[in-house]
Design goal:
The chain is 27% helix and 23% strand. It has 342 residues and is of the alpha/beta class. Strands 3, 4, 5, 8, 9, 16 and 17 form a 7-stranded mixed beta sheet that branches. It has a 6-stranded parallel beta sheet with strand order 12-11-10-13-14-15, with helices on both faces. The model has no long low-confidence stretch (mean pLDDT 96).
Length: 342
């Protein structure tokens, strides 16, 4: 098998040959067909997750079941089954798992962070982490749907509980924010997109934004002017910036829900009264669940959401170029592909 290995932070990944993997009891060996390269992978390479090195990154993936470990139910996904992969190893029994919030499992381990991921031709995943898909699905599209689309879906639907007719403001039109725009539009919301990039504002309009606002210090004021008295019902922050974190809260109005998806180690100053007087709330939204993946797969099959703006295919040998493209803002996503189809 081939794998792209991160041996040192802030260094290029090394593509190497490794022995083929063997699934341990309860795990499944998957031949990877596509793996998205996302901002979390750039963050990982900078040392943001404090992973134990060396590590094979990659968490946004699809593939074909190759071999089942001892004890795996063969009816779940027999060899040859095309699957989407869920990247969080979860216990299934803790208090968070018991209420369906497996993304918040109390013993969480993440593929591509705590254990080797899918920047490789093979990957090992727990039995409960494979989601069978249709042979007619495109492997690259399945890969990006598992994260780039499922993450904002989780934030809007599970955390924000957005309703038709509400105004949703989306800060950032990147790999996550662009899909927050199209999902919010599908949900029947009035969507306002904020970005510093003309090209991304044009993309937001194509994906269903009703208004676009150029990002900057005056963005909150411009957005509030569009919203009128009371402000927006929902603000979604997808940018890894403490400055934009603060702007998202400044944009909120009476009773607003602010959903934080973008992450940064930097902090910002906030007075409790900024929330109290408006009875606005701030919610963190972390990743997604397997049910979110299933839902966005159905939305995509129904033509509700597109992935065209996310698919820039590259072979594994160009993994470092894919990371640099993303970091430089030349693409919203790249997908490392290992075959034409399943």
């Amino acid at each position: 098998m081939q794998a792209a290995v991160l041996r040192r932070y802030n260094s290029p990944l090394e593509v190497v040959e490794r022995p083929d993997l063997k699934p341990p009891p309860g795990w499944i060996l998957v031949d990877v067909r596509g793996c998205g390269v996302c901002g979390s992978d750039v963050f990982l390479r900078k040392g943001g997750f404090n992973s134990t090195l060396p590590i094979v990154p990659g968490h946004e993936a699809s593939g074909v079941v190759r071999e089942l470990g001892e004890g795996v139910d063969p009816s779940v996904a027999p060899p040859g089954t095309p699957v989407a992969l869920y990247y969080i190893e979860h216990c299934g029994t803790c208090r968070m798992c018991s209420i369906g919030r497996v993304n918040m499992c109390l013993s969480v381990r993440r593929m591509g962070v705590e254990y080797d991921g899918a920047f490789a031709s093979q990957v090992l995943v727990p039995e409960r982490n494979v989601i069978p898909v249709q042979p007619s699905d495109d492997p690259a599209e399945v890969a990006v749907l598992t994260d780039a689309v499922a993450t904002p879906y989780h934030g809007l639907v599970r955390i924000g509980k957005v309703q038709p007719g509400e105004t949703v403001v989306v800060f950032g039109v990147g790999g996550i924010g662009s899909n927050a725009v199209q999902i919010a539009a599908h949900l029947g919301c009035r969507v306002i997109a904020v970005s510093r990039s003309d090209a991304k504002l044009e993309l937001a309009e194509r994906l269903g934004a009703h208004h676009v606002v150029r990002g900057g210090d005056d963005a909150p004021e411009k957005v509030r002017a569009l919203c009128g008295p009371g402000g927006p019902e929902v603000v979604v922050q997808t940018v890894g910036s403490a400055v934009v974190d603060r702007q998202a809260i400044d944009t909120s109005g009476i009773g607003s829900r602010v959903i934080m998806i973008g992450t940064t180690p930097e902090g910002f100053t906030l007075r409790a009264s900024d929330l109290i007087w408006r009875e606005s709330s701030v919610w963190g939204s972390r990743g997604f669940t397997p049910d979110d993946i299933r839902d966005v797969l159905d939305l995509h099959r129904g033509g509700v959401v597109t992935t065209d703006h996310l698919i820039h295919r590259r072979p594994l040998s160009e993994v470092n170029e894919a990371l640099e493209d993303l970091q430089a803002g030349r693409v919203l996503r790249s997908v490392l592909t290992f075959s034409e189809g399943w």
